[in-house]
Amino acid sequence: MHRGLDGERILTDIRGQAAPKPVQGTRSQNEKSRIVVPFEDNRILANLLGEYDSHMALLEDRLGIDAHAHGNVIILNGSDTNCQIAREVLEALYKRAAAGEPIGPGDFDGAIRHARHQAPEGESAGPAQVATRRRVIKARTLTQSTYMRAIETTDLVFGIGPAGTGKTYLAVAFAAHFLERGVVERIILSRPAVEAGERLGFLPGDMREKVDPYLRPLYDALYDVLPPEKVERDIETGVIEIAPLAFMRGRTLANAFVILDEAQNTTSMQMKMFLTRLGENAKMVVTGDPSQVDLPPGVASGLVEAERLLSQVEGIASVRFQSGDVVRRDLVARIVEAYDKLS
Fold it and tell me: What does residue 301 show for φ and ψ, rounded to 5 degrees?
């Protein structure tokens, strides 16, 4: 199970880029250490480390350490701090693999991010998680954990930040979680039907066919966390409703999990209208990226205003994601950081 040169090439191919330099200061500024981490089952360990030990290569890359497998042990060499983090990550993910969970590169990435940062005071250690019928979804960054715990405990949550941070996906996962456990009776997913700098013209078909292009990301998230047949059945019966923002006017949304996605494209009046729809026994999550506003020039974003006005209101949580929370892939994080430098 020695990684060797082939393992390095595979890691490069998976990520589509050359491996970056080790994190600054992890090897030169900290005391060096050698840690031997034993495991009981070689088969589970082999699955944990991935094909050609690609997951171990990821661990080395992220933490700037050397790691190699010998029988049923992993030997870690490098700074004491990062070797301790590597051991914590390996032991935690081994337990998940032993319980039958599939472990992928994203799980290693998330475990490393959590282990490298101490949880904020008052928060539980380790990543937050939510279970749906199809999968158990674990937070991959500390901000994701904060966001997920806010959704669990707060009736109105703003998730604000760049693309690829999981804002919408995690909200949909919690919606499915609460629906399946009978906490809410229905799911309502909405987006403002604003074109992203394009002119789509007059679309053919009925009303659903006309608005589906705007709402497709919400469908994609639903199909990922629930069986397709359940999604289709619940949409047909109205248990799951996916509609443009304009359809929310005049309604009271009670006993529901309500999500407004791409909320940066709401006007001030639209945002006020939507927030005041919240009824009894309902949860509402509002997500958006203020850096991607598609409103006409001179029209202020209702999301930006709402966050400012409601920041001190009891019963409302606002969670800000940064470029470091992008979990889609490293290249997306670098794109976000490059654009952030312009603002």
Answer: -75, 130
Distance in angstroms (rounded) separating the CA atoms of residues 239 and 227? 14
Q: Which residues are within 8 A (CB) of 73 and not within 5 positions of it... i.e. 6 or more apart? A: 36, 37, 38, 39
Evaluate the CA torsion angle 304, 305, 310, 311 in order and state its sign. positive
The C-alpha atoms of residue 97 and residue 91 are separated, in whole angstroms, by: 10
Q: DSSP letter for 186, please.
A: E
DSSP of 190-228: EE----SS----S--SSHHHHHHHHHHHHHHHHHHHS-H
324-329-331-333 Cα dihedral, nearest 10 degrees: -20
Mind listing the pLDDT tens digit for each residue in 280-329? 999 999 999 998 898 888 899 999 999 999 988 999 999 999 887 887 65
CA distance 51 to 290: 40
170, 144 Cβ separation under 8 angstroms: yes
282, amino acid identity: A
Q: What is the pLDDT of residues 131-154, one digit of tens each?
A: 888 888 888 888 999 999 999 999
The answer to whether 141 touches 324, Cβ cutoff 8 Å, is yes
The pLDDT tens digits for 197-249 are: 444 455 555 555 656 666 788 888 899 899 999 999 999 999 999 888 888 88
> 10 Å Cβ neighbour count for 29?
9
Residue 181 DSSP code: T
Angle among Cα 338, 259, 332 to the nearest 5 degrees reads 20
Annotate 72-87 with b (16+ C-beta within 10 A) or e (fewer): eebebebbebbbebbb
Q: What is the DSSP string of 59-97?
A: HHHHHT-EEEEETTEEEEEEEHHHHHHHHHHHHHHHHHH
From CA 77, how far away is CA 75, in angstroms rounded?
Answer: 7
The CA distance from 59 to 66, in Å, is 9
